[in-house]
Amino acid sequence: MEPSDDRELGDDRRLDDDRELDRILQQWQAPGAPPSLRAKVLPRQSHWWQWFATGTIRIPVPVGIAMLLAVAALLYFRTYLTTPERQAAQPATSVSLADFQPVKQLEPRVIGRANEGN
């Protein structure tokens, strides 16, 4: 049917066609979904603990890199600050002044800038 034919048809004819289509659509039944659709669309039911072996966590790459750097820095500083040399350099919690001896002669020296004379 060409557009010119559409003009030739009367308004009554178009209304009849619309009513006929409405009647057919009301009677039409959609076909049922195939049984395989459930397996394709819905996830399989599994135990929550199986997720630890097969699950994934999706994060953006910059967030993952930042987390790796933070963990690396934490491990580095934790091992660096707990080495035996660092533990020996830390002051004792209690100080005894029993063996304290004051300086016999105090000779202070003021150190200035590089361009000034000492």
Summarize the structure.
51% of the residues lie in helices and 0% in strands. It has 118 residues and is mainly α.
Walk me through the structure.
This protein is mainly alpha-helical and 118 residues long. It has a domain at 59-88. It is 51% helix and 0% strand. The protein has 6 helices and no strands. It has helices at 3-8, 11-27, 36-41, 51-54, 61-81, 84-89.
Task: List the uncertain runs.
Answer: none
Radius of gyration: 43 Å
Mean pLDDT equals 78
Report the sheet with the most strands, covering strand number, pairing sense and barrel closure. Answer: none
Instruction: Tell me, briefly, the overall form.
Output: elongated
**H/E order of the elements?**
HHHHHH
Distance, first to last CA: 108 Å
What class do helices, strands and sheet pairing give? mainly alpha
The count of β-strands is: 0
Work out the helicity level: 40-55%
Strand content: under 5%
Please give the count of helices.
6
Task: Identify the notable features of this structure and list them briefly.
118 residues; mainly alpha; 6 helices; 51% helix
Strand and helix map with partners:
Blueprint: H1 3-8, H2 11-27, H3 36-41, H4 51-54, H5 61-81, H6 84-89
